[in-house]
Structures are given as C-alpha cells and as structure tokens.
Amino acid sequence: MLKLRSGVFGLTSAAAVILAAGCSEYGQPAVGGGATVVPQVVFLASDAGAADAETSVAAEASSEVALGSIRGRVQMVGGAPEMKLLVKAGDDIKDKEVCAAVDVPDERLMVSGDGGVANVFVYLQKAPKGGRPLETPAEPFVFDQKNCRFYPHTVVLPVNQTVRVLSNDSVAHNTHTYPSKNNSVNSGVAPMDRDGKLEIVYRKAEAVPLAVKCDYHAWMNAWHLPLDHPYGAVTNEAGEFAISDIPAGTHSFVVWHEAADGNFVQRKLAVEVKAGEETEVKIEYPAALLKL
Amino acid sequence: MISHVAWLKRAGIAGLLSIAVTGCSDNSSSFSISDRTRSLIPEAQTGVSEAPGVVKLLDEKFGDPQTLKAWTKLPVQWGGAAAKVEVFAADGAEAKVKFVPGEGQTFPEKATTVNVVTGAVAGRTLQLASWNAETGEAVLTGLDGASLAAGDTCSIDGGAVIQSGRVLYMRHCSHCHGTAGDGNGPTAQYLYPRPRDYRHGVFKFTSTNDMSKVSREDLLRILRYGIPGTYMPSFLLMKDEELTAIVEYVRFLAMRGEFERKLVNELASDYSEEAVESRLKDETRTDIVGELAKFLAEDVPGVVDGIGVELEESWVAADTEEAKIIPSVPRVPDSVESRRRGRELYLSKTLNCADCHGIDGAGNGPQTMIFEKNPVTNVPYNEPGLHDVWDNLNQPRNLHTGILRGGRRPIDLFCRIHAGIKGSRMPSFKNTPHEDIWHIVNYVLSIPFEPEPGATGVASAPAGSATDAAAPAAGE
Fold first, then answer.
1. How many contacts, defined by CB atoms under 8 Å, are there between A and B?
2. What is the pLDDT of residue B329?
3. Minimal C-alpha gap between A260 and chain B (Å)
4. What is the pLDDT of residues B136-161, one digit of tens each?
5. What percent of chain A is modeled with pLDDT above 70?
6. pTM for the model
7. Each residue of B60-98: pLDDT tens digit?
C-alpha cells in the first residue's frame, strides 16, 4: 500500500483515478491475511530442552587444571598526546563551588610519564574451561563521587556483587547506568550520602564495559564491567595489570579503552598462559587509534 | 505489496491518470525487523547453514501477524485453558481423549479447537467434534493418523485472547504504534511526542518501583484514560475484555521486541557490520562466519532459553505486590505549609528538581540547554536538551500547564518521583523520605494555580534551609 500511496502523492497530474479491483480493505474478510484477519495461533512448549548445557560446564569446572598467570602493561606508542584537564579549579561551571573546587583531569586518557595508559580493560569475554569459579564478595563494592567525579573511573565487578553508591559532594547527583544486558538504573543520590542508600547489582555479565553517568553533571562518567568469571582487570596509573589463576593454554583477551576509536585496542589478543608461570604481556596502544 | 503492481498511465495532456490495481492475493502484514538487527552482518540475521539467525529465531518464537506463536514460557494470557492428555484412544478418523485441566485452570463450557503444545504433533490445531467441560472428555478430528499420548500438553480453545488482542490492536493501535509495536506506524512521523516503541520493554508511567517493568494494571489504566498532552487517546468506551486483550497483545509485542534486542546484544559486539569491518584487519571473513556458525549452533540455544527466563521473571514480577510502590505514610494533607516545604525541597541541593524543571517549574532548567551525547554510542545529538532511551528529545514537563502525562492523581505524582520516569532522564528518588515526596506532590499540584510563577514561598525556616544544612551533617 505504501508504494501505491507514494506513487499517488508523487504525481503532478491534474486528476487521478484509482481503480481498485474487487478487494475492499474494510467490511469484508481479507484474502490471504492482513490487518483484519483473525490470526492463527500456534502453541510452543515452554522449554526447548537446552538446560543440559549448564550442568556440563559446571562439571568441567571442578576438574583439576594447571594454572598460570599474566602480568603486563599497556603502552602508548607513537607519541602520547598532552593530558588535559576536564575542569580547572575555579572554572565558571555549574555547581562550581563543588565541581570546580579542584582540578579534575580528563579521565578519558590518563597516560603516565613513561607512556603507561590507565583505565584500560583487559579481560576474557567468556569463562575458560577449567578456570577457578567466580567468588562474589559478600561486602559491597563502594562507588563514590567527589568534586563531580566518580571513584573509581573504571572497575571490573563480579556479577551479583552489590555496588553501593556514595556521594562526598554537597550537591545532588544521580547515577544512571547504560548496560546492554542488565537492567538500567537511574536513581538520585542525596548530597553527602556516606551510607550509600543506593545499591546496584549486575545480574549478568556484559560483553563490553557499560557507561555510568550523572544527568545533573553531564560530564561525569565512569565505566563498569560486570563479569561472570574472575579473568578481567583494569590497568593502574602506570598502565599495569595482572590476572592470575588462568588455565594454561592460549586465550584471547579483549583490550578495551574508552578513548580508542571503536573502543577496542585489541579485539582478540592471543596470549599463551604457561602452567605455574607468570607470562609477561606487552600491549601496544598506537596513538593514532585515539579518538578524543 | 509486490502484487499491488500499478500501471500508471498518463492520458494525454490533461494528465488524467488511472491506476489499476490488479489482484489482491497477498495482503499479509509482517513484523518489522529492528535497525539494530539490520546492523548485523547478513549471516547473523539469517543464520549460517542449519543454525538460525536472529530473524529466523524471532519467527520461530513469535511468528508473524498471520500466525502468532504462543511461546508458553512467556507470561502472556493467550486465552484458552491449559490441559494434559490423560487417556487417548484412536477410533478410525476420530479419537477419544480425556483431558485433565492444568494447575488452576478451568475448562470452558464450549470449545471448538485443541492446540497441541508438546508431544509428537506439537504445534497442530485439532478440531473438537464433541466436548464435555465437566469430565474433560472430547472427540477429536484432524489427526490424520497421528496420535496424542498421555502426558502431552494442550490448550483447549487456545489463543482466543491473543487473537482478539491482535485484531483490536491492528484496528485501534497499529497506525501509530506500528504492526510490531515499533512506534513507527504510518501516522507516527506526524506526531510529537512520538508513539511509544514497545521493543525496549520500557514504559514510562508505572506504579511499579524503579527497577520493575510496567504492570498490567498500568497498561490498562493508560488504555482507559489515555496520556494527557499526547496523541494517546482514552479507550474508555471499549469493553473490559477488549482492553485486557489489547494489554496482552502489547505485552506480547514488547516481549518480542525485548527478545530481539537481547539477542542482538549477544551478537552485536562481534558480528555487527561495523565490528566485522574492524575485525577484517586481522581475520578473514570465512573465519569470522565460521566462528559465528559455531556460536549460533552451540551457544545461542542456551541464550534463547536464558532470555525466555529473564522475560518470564521480569514480566511476572511486575504484577506482584512487591513491585508496587506503596507510600509508607498516607498523603500529607495539602496545606500552605506543605506546599512551601515542597517548594523548598524542589529547590534544595538534595533533590534539585529545578535543575531540569526550572526554578519556577516551567520545564526550562539549565539541563534543558546542554548539548548531550548519546551515552551509549557517544554520538552528539543535533539539538540541545535531554533525550530518552528512544533517542527522542524529551524535555522536562512544564508544571504550569496542569497537564501531567502520567496522571494527575496525587499517587501518580508520588510514583513519578519515587520510581522516576523509565527510559527518560528523570531519576528515581526512592531513597527520599516519603513524607518529603508528598510535600513535593502538594507543591507540584499547586503550581498551575500560583498567582505568578514561583509565588510559593519556601517554608518558614530561613533560606539555606533545613534540608541543605542537615544533609552534610548526617554524613559526618
């Protein structure tokens, strides 16, 4: 019908005669389906019976596997750009007595003096066979904010761990998450809430880190990565990371950074983990990849 | 569509035109496929060899508008009564069957069809030659030699609700909300605000807490009373059973959309056109498609089951008592003092409603002036102001008009503040004392009647206010 209508509208002709031969849309049963027909309903069973898969994975996990670990560094190559401030102390911005009380760095890119890149996520997308099970701490993870900046800026979280949201600012904040597999949270956080009334729990692992924002202060930003296995880390200020107790063998790690074009520094970084050894991993981050 | 071939003839200089539409063999409608699905490589959409992709899985689980699939895992009232076969005896072309009702089910007095859900002839619709609702004894035709077995599950007269829901939806709703509930029916482009796209599974105005979905009651309320200030009309003149059938069909479409969305989420980071393009720097297309084939065949069946469980749990939870927002204190009586206290909270650093809604409640706070980026894609929006998850410009309400989309009962406003407005930037203030929420409700309801904007003074306490002073002290 759309084609028909656009055809009519597109014409400059003085008159249009439409002869629709014998198939009225209204008042008569439609032929061959369409809007007015009563649909058939086919009933499907509740389950297709794919429940077996989970038990087999659990069984494999219990068997003994030799473990190794990795330690590494993400290094900016090709000349690191100058680091910038997001907010300079005294800037005339919204809620400046709090948000511009001190210098706030632009955390999208934090490079150390010798080129180590902080806040880079290094993780396995799927739990490897024979890995150690995920331990979910009973203690909540504390996610704080001060001077309109989230602390920490990046974090890997075990699924089902409670994230307790605090505020050390005397202005209103809200914590608004943008996950793709979990439910989004958007809740106000009262000024100076040092108890953390707002709690967030990620029930599912995400494929990539999710953005956490404050709508009162649109520049505030953090990244959470919930994982259902213990094989993920973020780089520290020197660009270093370490992941331990990985089953020996070759694994492919995701290297993800918010300032990289397309976000992936490496989609599949193959690393051979040797039993009982610590493997050194050097990850190069070309400056040309930056998109700031 | 294709068969609506038209001959366009320009007859002479007069420009007389005749269009002859010949034949009308295919009027069938279809559920649209989302842009996110379309952003995947073709193999992920359609599948690789035997393993189905997103489009095929959607069809398997939800069907098309002519043939709806009732995936009985989903909490949709399809209509009909669930039943189990207890005794089956073939008798020539007919078969004698005794059914027992499923848990909590009662058999309808009259019934004409049996939809087979499990067993050798699952998916078939059989005709009832005779039916006894009291004993569950029936004579079936249409088996063509196949047989049912004891334990097979069926639905007696199944699907009546969803059928009626679809017919009514297509008549009353689809022109704005679209056949698939994608908010993109033919009239949608002329409307502001845009009609709801159900496929996120998110509805703005709910009486459920901030992390819960919309309840059936909420949807029914919206159908009955419409959404003031929008094009959504009231359907109060329709019968209750018609409205409940539409609610079930809207839930069905929302779950279908969510299913598609969640499935694409599993594939997008590795198999979108964009991802594959960047992967081709280090990998070959054959390898990527091979990996996809393995993922579709080995992992996706479990993913599909998992999504089914999530949909079931979340939509069931929305209709429970735990999901409901119940104020812990009754409404604070409206008074000058309460309105002033509400205004004070409205302006306070604790809640800072004025940041979006403006100091005088005109919906023009400083946040409405900023240029935002989409928080997920990081792409800047073309126009300043706040945007919702549907990427629509979604400016805060001007509270002077007295038009409140989620309803103007005090409890409606209480829920908006407690749960926030889902999908929008309006956050939940669930951790604010309920008494304070009521003060704000009283203030907001009084705004349209203020002699001049901002005329309501703050509470008798001097400026700087109890709230702002108390908050830091409590933390230290």
1. 264
2. 98
3. 12
4. 999 998 888 788 899 999 989 888 99
5. 83
6. 0.87
7. 999 999 999 999 999 999 998 889 999 998 877 788 999
Architecture field, domain A61-289 = Sandwich (2.60)
Q: Which of 2.40.50.730, 2.40.30.10, 3.30.700.20, 1.10.10.60 would CATH assign to domain B81-158?
A: 2.40.30.10
- As beta bridge partners, residue A189 has A173
The minimum CA-CA distance between B250 and chain A, rounded to whole Å, is: 15
Positions in chain A whose pLDDT score sits under 70 = 1-34, 48-63
Closest chain B residue by Cα to residue A36: B167
DSSP calls for A148-213: S-EESSEEEEETT-EEEE---SSS-EEEEEE-SSSPP-EEEE-TT--S--EEEE--S--SS-EEEE
For residues B467 and A190, the answer to whether their CB atoms sit within 8 Å is no
Q: Taking the domains of chain A in order of start, what are their residue ranges?
A: 61-289
Cα dihedral sign for B265, B267, B270, B275?
A: negative
Whether B349 sits inside 8 A of A172 (CB atoms) is: yes
Q: Residue A82's pLDDT is what?
A: 87
Look at B118 and A176 and tell me if their CB atoms are within 8 Å.
no
Domain coordinates in residue numbering, chain B: 81-158, 169-317, 336-469
Say yes or no: domain B336-469 is CATH 3.40.1280.10: no
pLDDT digits (tens, 9 = 90+) for A154-189: 999 999 999 999 999 999 999 999 999 999 999 999
Q: Which residue from A minimizes the CA distance to B79?
A: A41
CA distances to A183, B13, B43, B78 from B311, rounded to whole Å, are 12, 61, 26, 16
Write the DSSP string, B43-110: HHHHEETTEE-HHHHHHHHHB-SSEEEEETTS----SSEEEEEEEEEEETTEEEEEEEEPTT----SS
Mutate to test the interface with B, among A1, A17, A43, A95 (most CBs of B within 10 A): A43
CB A68 within 8 A of CB A276: yes
Task: Judge contact between A107 and A155, C-beta under 8 A.
Answer: no
